[in-house]
Structure formats: structure tokens, C-alpha cells
Amino acid sequence: xxxxxxxxxxxxxxxxxxxxxxxxxxxxxxxxxxxxxxxxxxxxxxxxxxxxxxxxxxxxxxxxxxxxxxxxxxxxxxxxxxxxxxxxxxxxxxxxxxxxxxxxxxxxxxxxxxxxxxxxxxxxxxxxxxxxxxxxxxxxxxxxxxxxxxxxxxxxxxxxxxxxxxxxxxxxxxxxxxxxxxxxxxxxxxxxxxxxxxxxxxxxxxxxxxxxxxxxxxxxxxxxxxxxxxxxxxxxxxxxxxxxxxxxxxxxxxxxxxxxxxxxxxxxxxxxxxxxxxxxxxxxxxxxxxxxxxxxxxxxxxxxxxxxxxxxxxxxxxxxxxxxxxxxxxxxx
Length: 333
Description:
Elements: E1 2-12, E2 20-28, E3 34-41, E4 50-56, E5 65-68, E6 75-83, E7 86-94, H1 101-104, H2 107-113, E8 123-130, E9 141-144, E10 149-151, E11 156-157, E12 163-169, E13 174-180, E14 188-193, E15 199-208, E16 211-218, E17 222-228, E18 239-244, E19 251-254, E20 260-265, E21 274-279, E22 285-292, E23 298-305, E24 311-317, E25 321-330
């Protein structure tokens, strides 16, 4: 089994207004076009940080447009998701003022030092709804007021019809799973998962009816995982996998052919290389390729298996650009 790169293109290049870009989320429209959202600004958590959107028609990306820009506040972590025939854009807004430029411009280094209080840990979660496939989004609504709760990965529609939201608490570095049947006002929360040094950015797949596996970004040098066998009501204590993690974002999807595809940084210290690995059982992984391996940051991957069977990957390129790749999945005989 292998992945063959068949297309790559930058979605967004840095410019004078937006020298920094990060944290892309990808979604396939019903007509087969692809939408991607991300955030851009002077630096991470800068007050001018806004959420942008672009559409791919199979050949080219449209000119990016600003879709959310809260005055004098940083918006971030956008996630596109469709549920009950509605397209939603979830995101967070920093209420606590963000970071001063000397910290924000060296975000990853300061993150390792633990100097980043007053930024993402002061977020509220918000959302907007589109009824025209992402051409426009309605008025902003508050999803969760409590500061510090965030999202990064897309929600998961479970086989019993429930919706699972992968939340995390930026203040305590814990993972929570929210489950609802009816709407965004009726969540029940489970989990409170924590690794020895802390975990965020949960991503969940359903292995079979009610059996869920959650992978998490950690400060522990490796991806950790937890398992539930009751549709997310109870979870095992997180345990380390053999997969390295440099305290950076990951993504995990279940392919229609039964494989699991993981996008991650194959390092415990650096956000390079950016790699893809395949597994049949979420235990034994085969790294199939390094998408990027230069000594720069390539991070925050987001994956999509399109209706065509092609696999789309979007990610942060050197913290300045957003890049898109398409792969063809090949099962070797």
C-alpha cells in the first residue's frame, strides 16, 4: 500500500498584511469542490488575526476571502463541518488580548518555555452557519463562553446518530468529548483525559459500532491514545503509542477501504518532517512517505478522503503559507 502524490499547490502565500498563516481545515462540498479555512495575521494571536476561506474547483484555488474578523481580537482554529444539511464554521476568539509581538512572533519557542498565558487559554468558541454551501455565513453565535475551551479537529457523526465534539482545555491541557443528539445546547461531556505532561487536539475515529479511538497531541514526545467501547461515555486512561509527537497537531481519518491514515510530524522535538502513515488496526503503523522534510516547520495537517477516493491534505508551510496536496491511494498486489 502506498500514496502517490498527484497534485500540489499553495492555497495562500504570505503578504504584507498577513505574513503569518496557520491551522487549515478542509471540507468537500456536495458538488465536489473543496473549501479550506485557516487563520492569518501579523503573528500568532495578533489582534488583526482573521479567518480566511478559499475554494478549489479541481484545478485552481479561488482568491482567499476574509470570512471572520473580530475587531481588535484574534480569531483562530477554524473548523468546517456539515451536520443535518447545514454547513457550520466553528472557530475561537481570544478574549484576553493575545500576546505581545515579542512572544507571538516566536510562538513555538515560547510555547516550549511555558510563556504563553493570556492567549489561547482565554478563548471562547463561536460558530456561523451557511445555507449556500459556504458562499456566505450568517451571524455569529456563541458556542461555549467558558474561556480556554477550544476545538481543532472536526466533529464525528457516530453510527448511532449522535454527534461527538473533540474539545480540549488549553488552561489545563486536558481532553473532553462532548456528545449531543439534538443540537449545540444539549451537550453531555465525558473524558477529562490527561497525559503525564498534558494533551490537546484530540481526533476521534469510530472503529466499529460504539468503539471509538482518540489520538492526542501531547507534551510527552509521543502521540497518546484512549479507547471507548460505549459511544464515548467512558474512556481508558491515555497510553503512549510508538508514534512521535513534537507537541504539534495531528490528524487521523478512517478510509473507505478500511485503512487508517495518520498525518503527523515524525519527530519528538521538531515540526518536521511532515509524514503520512497507514494502519489496519491503529496499532501497527507503516510510514508511507514524508510530505516535507526540510529543516523548517510543516505542521497542523488536516486530511480528507474525497468522494473520488483521492486523499487531500492541507497544512501549514513554514508558518507563512497554506499548502494543499492530493494523493492517490494504491493497494499493492
